[in-house]
Structure formats: structure tokens, C-alpha cells
Write a structure and sequence with these properties.
- By secondary structure, the chain is α/β, with parallel strands linked by helices.
- The protein has seven helices and 18 strands.
- Strand 5 and strand 6 form a beta hairpin.
- 44% of the residues are buried.
- The structure holds flavin-adenine dinucleotide and FE2/S2 (inorganic) cluster (FES).
- The site of flavin-adenine dinucleotide (FAD) has 22 residues, from strand 4, strand 6 and helix 1.
């Protein structure tokens, strides 16, 4: 069936059931959507804000039994500001879930999250942590203490001793960026898998470190998205379309886009711009 005819691509309207402030710039929004409630960590949805825009967002939490879905959204521009201004009961539109997901590795894993990038990783942690074989270490970074997200939940799921934090202004944890923090953790411990999500330059640095040490990586990439189903071409990186072939890419795939990944992306006119 053509991608645009699938059930996932059909726009469904739903109402915001709850809105929670997580930080001065981030809120989580919960709503009912039967299809996205089946999503796996790493997948994303397209959220339509009536009269404003439709934007891609990673699925932060999905509960199939209750049909509930949450997204964690950082206020950065017009659409995300409009969403932050919404109230419980307001109408939104949903397409999805789209894209692939992180593999569920229950060995020794390191999760590296920068800023809002920790949101899909927390969804992954929730799935992996219940396994007795799982040992999860987290390196999380943000500009400042108030923007360090979901620390309490991460501590609860992974154990406080396994959660390392960095802030750029030094207001919490070490005064550093997440990629440097990850480098220190990687130098001290051996991991089977590293998952990364956040600013692409951070992901690239983590990937380069892992390549040096022979550790396999999976990373979630962001590109501009319009259709979300592999048709419009706005999310291209190398031979891949991030919406269809990603957003999660493994080390093997990342090696093939090394000339672009962490260096270049395209704007809505298709022009190459520095990441
Ligand atoms: C697969 C994927 C998952 C994402 N998950 C999250 C998430 O969980 N939480 C979150 O807060 N943000 C997430 N984003 C980023 C989010 O889509 C943008 O912040 C949002 O679209 C910005 O819209 P705006 O109108 O508020 O800002 P604008 O002022 O329009 O844009 C601000 C910046 O956001 C990015 N952006 C704008 N439009 C798009 C678009 N259509 N597609 C991709 N990026 C865009 C651009 O880098 C732009 O410079 C994700 C993006 C992708 C591609
Ligand atoms: S967003 Fe259209 S091809 Fe990916």
C-alpha cells in the first residue's frame, strides 16, 4: 500500500488530556491516540497545531492498554510556542507513528542525551530497565540545572550512581557538555551499546568516540520534515530519508553519511546549511 494511504498517515484529531511543565522551556503533553499508543522508543509522530503548523516530535511515552501517548516539547519557535500556549481540552491533530525504533539491548548500555534529546531515551530506559540483565548508565547534559530533564525518573530507573549529569554553566553535575561527559564514562567502563539523542554535533562526537573504542552506536537524527512518509525529500541525509529509514540510525549507516552527519543539513529550500 502507498505510504500516504496507510492508517498511520491518516490525520486523527484528539484533545489534550494533560499538560505538565517539566522545565522553563519544556512541557509534556498527553492525549489519546490508539495507533501511537503502540509506538516503540525512537518512533515519532506528526503533531498538527490547528492554524499554525504540523511538527515532528519523538514519542516520549506510549501506553497501549490505556491508549495514551505523551510528547515532551521544547519551546523554540512559532509552532512549539503555540503548543505551549494550549490548555487541557484543546484540539490537536496526530499522524503516526512513523519511522523505526531503537533496538532493545539489555546488556551494558550507555545513553547519552543532550537537552530535549533525553526524552526518547527515557522511553527506551523504561522498556529496558525491567530486564534483570540490563545495566544502564546515563550521561545527560543541558545548558543549566533547570533544563536538566527527567533526572528523578532516570535516577529511579537506573540507580543514582549510574546517572551522570553535565551543565554548561556548572549549576549541576560537572561543568561540561554531554559529549565530553560521555567520553569520560566511555574511558572508564566497557559498554555493549551506546544510544545517543540530542544536538547533532553532540551525537557526532559520541559516535567518533565509540568508533575509536569499537562500541556499537545507535543515534536518533533530526532533519526538517514535511510528509514524514518518505515522499517529499526534505529530510534527506546521504542516501537516506530520515523519516522513513530513521530517525534511528546505527553505526554502520552513520559511517556512510560521515560527510554530512554532524556537519550539514538542508533548509526547507533544500539548501545545505551548517548543523
Ligand atoms: C524526528 C524528530 C523528532 C523530534 N522530536 C522532538 C521532541 O521530542 N521534542 C521537541 O521539542 N522537538 C523535537 N523535534 C524538533 C521539533 O520538530 C522542532 O523543534 C519544531 O518543529 C520547531 O518548530 P517551531 O515552529 O516551534 O520552530 P521554528 O522556528 O519553525 O524552527 C526552529 C528550529 O526547529 C527545527 N524545525 C522547524 N521545523 C521543523 C520540521 N518541520 N521538522 C524538523 N525540524 C524542524 C529547525 O531546526 C528550526 O531551525 C524533533 C524533530 C524531528 C525531525
Ligand atoms: S519528511 Fe518527506 S521524505 Fe522525509
Amino acid at each position: 500500500m502507498s505510504a500516504w494511504l496507510t492508517k498511520a498517515n491518516k490525520l486523527r484529531t484528539t484533545r489534550l488530556l494533560s499538560i505538565k511543565t517539566e522545565s522553563p522551556t519544556v512541557k509534556t503533553f498527553t492525549f489519546k491516540d490508539r495507533l501511537c499508543a503502540k509506538a516503540k522508543p525512537g518512533q515519532f509522530l506528526m503533531l498538527w497545531i490547528p492554524g499554525v503548523d504540523e511538527i515532528p516530535l519523538s514519542i516520549f511515552h506510549a501506553n497501549e492498554r490505556e491508549g495514551l501517548v505523551s510528547v515532551a516539547v521544547k519551546k523554540v519557535g512559532e509552532a512549539t510556542q503555540a503548543l505551549h500556549d494550549k490548555k487541557t481540552g484543546d484540539l490537536i491533530g496526530i499522524r503516526g507513528p512513523f519511522g523505526n525504533n531503537f533496538t532493545l539491548n539489555t546488556g551494558r548500555t550507555l545513553m547519552v542525551g543532550g537537552g530535549i534529546g533525553i526524552a526518547p531515551l527515557l522511553f527506551l530506559v523504561k522498556k529496558v530497565a525491567p530486564s534483570k540483565k540490563a545495566k544502564i548508565v546515563v550521561a545527560v547534559g543541558a545548558k543549566t540545572r533547570s533544563e536538566l530533564l527527567f533526572l528523578k525518573k532516570l535516577n529511579e530507573l537506573c540507580g543514582e550512581a549510574n546517572v551522570f549529569a553535565a551543565t554548561e554553566d556548572g549549576s549541576y553535575g560537572v561543568k561540561d557538555v554531554a559529549s565530553n561527559l560521555a567520553e569520560k564514562v566511555l574511558a572508564e567502563e566497557k559498554f555493549d551499546m551506546v544510544y545517543a539523542c540530542g544536538p547533532e554535533q553532540m551525537i557526532r562526537k559520541v559516535f567518533d568516540q565509540c568508533e575509536k573504542r569499537g562500541v556499537f552506536t545507535e543515534a536518533s537524527l533530526e532533519r526538517l520534515m514535511r510528509c514524514a512518509i518518505g515522499i517529499c525529500g526534505s529530510c534527506i541525509i546521504g542516501k537516506y530519508r530520515v523519516c522513513r529509514d530513521g530517525p534511528v540510525f546505527n553505526a554502520e549507516q552513520l559511517r556512510t553519511v560521515k560527510d554530512e552527519f554532524g556537519l550539514w543539513k538542508r533548509d526547507f529550500d533544500g539548501k545545505r546549511i551548517r548543523v
